[in-house]
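Researcher: Sequence recovery benchmark, item below. Answer with residues only.
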């Protein structure tokens, strides 16, 4: 009871940070966009403050994922139960992500935003963002997606897999799962000290997150200010139909599909659910990163919803990397939108490929801002839509990224709630 008012205050503070940062950014964008002082504020205040907050969260992700997942598996103990939970989780991820893509594809076929795009806007965007698109396409060509992605899940050197700017989360997950299984198979007296160390690491991570989250109202304000003070708002209007299609799809999935899933599978009141995961949604929105949100997702699912650490520790880290409903929906809509713009007629068969590839690439996308863009370029190439077309949407990507990341992480909590329920846990009211 004692901690409840404090948590409420945190939501509110973050929300106020978000609104203040957004408003200040929009005002500066409108009235002072060419003032040198604004560039200074961005460079020396909002960018570094936002980055420090983000880094503070991201810095605990590797130890947290490793310790939570290993402990989760070790505490589940029984390999049969682990298998059952693993299969349910994987099916849930795949099916719900496919539902998200289908919602997106239905809308994009109905609204046909590509047909509404004025030729002038198309040419302007292609010219403005072509440089960036070419660079991204170059990066995408380097991305191995396919059999190599599968092979890469089993790392030759687990330290090398994570000791780089973009850690390979799938490899980390694999190593953690194996370590957890190993712990269940060795003698108790040797497993216990390791478990105790991992519990210590886990607790230290949570302490660091709590400190970071005290900074959240300022960090969030700074992150949002950095985005809105630079953002070309006229782009939102120019690409209006496309933006509306993506946002409508995301809203339907978030409040429609998730509500039904929470009600039916977790047997929990959806309204209450959204209230409990508010901090998770706000953090995802302001950081645009499933990874940066992961620590918050983990603590909120345990503290607010009462999902036991062994289940949250198993499902949530997997979800942060593999379960990206918003990203898949966005990818599906974007591929079809660009196909419409470039007059590429995608048959039902080709659209089915879009569904499958959007689901798979959403599993492979990194949980960082714009993590899905290189893979989206691959899907475009695969179905014969000019990948340079990505230039059309780059200007609005950040805003859409903020929104789709909310779904990516909320979906992880819906899954954890379902798995907890299916294992007989009664969720906290
Ligand atoms: N930013 C997204 C995430 O972290 C990934 C993406 O769609 O680009 O979940």
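Model:
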């Amino acid at each position: 009871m004692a901690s409840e008012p404090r948590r409420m205050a945190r939501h509110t503070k973050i929300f106020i940070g978000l609104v203040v940062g957004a408003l200040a950014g929009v005002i500066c964008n409108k009235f002072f966009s060419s003032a040198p002082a604004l560039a200074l504020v961005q460079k020396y205040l909002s960018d570094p403050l936002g980055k420090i907050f983000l880094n503070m969260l991201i810095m605990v992700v590797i130890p947290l994922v490793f310790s939570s997942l290993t402990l989760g598996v070790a505490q589940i103990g029984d390999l049969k139960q682990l298998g059952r939970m693993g299969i349910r989780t994987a099916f849930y991820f795949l099916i719900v992500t496919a539902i998200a893509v289908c919602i997106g594809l239905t809308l994009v076929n109905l609204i046909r935003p590509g047909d509404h795009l004025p030729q002038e806007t198309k040419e302007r965007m292609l010219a403005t963002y072509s440089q960036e698109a070419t660079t991204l396409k170059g990066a995408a060509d380097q991305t191995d997606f396919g059999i190599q992605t599968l092979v890469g899940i089993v790392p030759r050197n687990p330290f090398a897999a994570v000791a780089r700017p973009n850690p390979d989360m799938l490899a980390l997950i694999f190593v953690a799962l194996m370590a957890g299984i190993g712990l269940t198979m060795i003698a108790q007296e040797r497993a216990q000290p390791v478990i105790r160390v991992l519990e210590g690491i886990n607790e230290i991570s949570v302490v660091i997150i709590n400190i970071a989250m005290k900074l959240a109202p300022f960090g969030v304000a700074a992150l949002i200010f950095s985005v809105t003070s630079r953002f070309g708002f006229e782009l939102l209007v120019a690409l209006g139909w496309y933006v509306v299609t993506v946002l409508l799809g995301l809203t339907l999935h978030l409040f429609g599909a998730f509500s039904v899933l929470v009600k039916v599978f977790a047997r929990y009141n959806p309204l209450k659910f959204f209230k409990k995961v508010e901090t998770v949604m706000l953090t995802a929105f302001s950081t645009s990163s499933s990874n940066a949100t992961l620590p918050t997702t983990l603590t909120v699912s345990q503290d607010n919803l009462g999902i036991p650490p062994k289940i949250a520790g198993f499902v949530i880290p997997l979800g942060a990397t593999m379960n990206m409903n918003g990203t898949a929906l966005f990818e599906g809509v974007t591929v079809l939108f660009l196909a419409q713009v470039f007059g590429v007629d995608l048959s039902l068969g080709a659209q089915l490929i879009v569904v499958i590839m959007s689901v798979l690439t959403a599993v492979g996308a990194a949980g960082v801002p714009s993590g899905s863009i290189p893979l989206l370029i691959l899907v475009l190439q695969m179905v014969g839509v000019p990948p340079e077309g990505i230039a059309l949407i780059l200007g609005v990507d950040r805003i859409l990224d903020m929104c789709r990341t909310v779904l990516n992480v909320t979906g992880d909590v819906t899954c954890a709630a379902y798995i907890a329920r299916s294992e007989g846990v009664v969720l906290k009211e």
